[in-house]
């Protein structure tokens, strides 16, 4: 099912923005960007900068370690998964795991924008946090994001021992 036709702003919204340019201001301190790839790049850059600053300011860069994994998908492409674990959590037992998918409407999101939150969760909960970074629209059409997420979950379960997690 191809739903890509729904990936553009509604004509009513475009008319509103034309009549009232102040509506076009976004929370990212930039004017409304109509090109989704440009919006994706600028939003990700701003969100990553904030996350990396918080990550460092809270000392999470010293409290949590992370490892990136390259995961093959069903269509022979690859996605990244980042596994976060508290530095002091190596008691020899597999840890519980929290699988995290970033928000962003399948357009916005990256590994680095989640570094502060995922590290905070891993450190506070004493669990392994696994953040999958699925492929985004508009570069990849709908269902790719869901399939990537499922492929990543299957990879996590198949590699629970390597990740040192309890898959139960």
**Alpha carbon gap, first and last residue:** 34 Å
Give the total of domains: 1
What's the count of strands? 4
Largest sheet: 4 strands, mixed
Number of helices, counting only DSSP H or I runs of 4 residues or more: 6
Order of helices and strands: HHHEEEHEHH
CATH class annotation? Alpha Beta
Q: Could you say which overall geometry the principal axes of the C-alpha atoms support?
A: flat
CATH superfamily: Alpha/Beta hydrolase fold, catalytic domain
CATH architecture name: 3-Layer(aba) Sandwich
Can you put this structure into words, describing what you see?
- This protein has one domain: 3-Layer(aba) Sandwich (Rossmann fold), CATH 3.40.50.1820.
- 39% of the residues lie in helices and 17% in strands.
- It has 6 helices and 4 strands.
- Strand 3 (97-101), helix 4 (115-125) and strand 4 (128-133) form a beta-alpha-beta unit.
- Helix 2 packs across helix 4 (115-125).
- The model has no long low-confidence stretch (mean pLDDT 87).
- It holds the Pfam family Abhydrolase_3.
- InterPro entries: AB_hydrolase_3, AB_hydrolase_fold.
Can you describe this structure in just a few lines?
GO terms for molecular function: hydrolase activity. The protein has 168 residues and is an alpha+beta fold.
């Amino acid at each position: 099912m191809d739903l890509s036709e729904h990936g553009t702003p509604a004509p009513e919204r475009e008319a509103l923005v034309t009549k009232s340019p102040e509506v076009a201001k976004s929370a990212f301190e930039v004017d409304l960007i109509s090109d989704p790839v440009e919006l994706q790049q600028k939003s990700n850059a701003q969100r990553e900068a904030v996350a990396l600053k918080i990550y460092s300011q809270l000392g999470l860069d010293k409290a949590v370690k992370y490892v990136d994994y390259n995961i093959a998908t069903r269509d022979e492409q690859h996605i990244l998964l980042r596994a976060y674990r508290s530095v002091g959590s190596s008691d020899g037992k597999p840890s519980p795991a929290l699988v995290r998918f970033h928000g962003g409407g399948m357009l916005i999101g990256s590994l680095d924008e989640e570094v502060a939150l995922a590290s905070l969760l891993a450190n506070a909960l004493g669990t392994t946090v696994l953040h999958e970074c699925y492929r985004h629209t508009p570069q990849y059409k709908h269902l790719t994001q869901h399939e990537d997420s499922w492929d990543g979950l299957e990879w996590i379960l198949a590699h629970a021992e390597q990740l040192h997690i309890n898959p139960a």
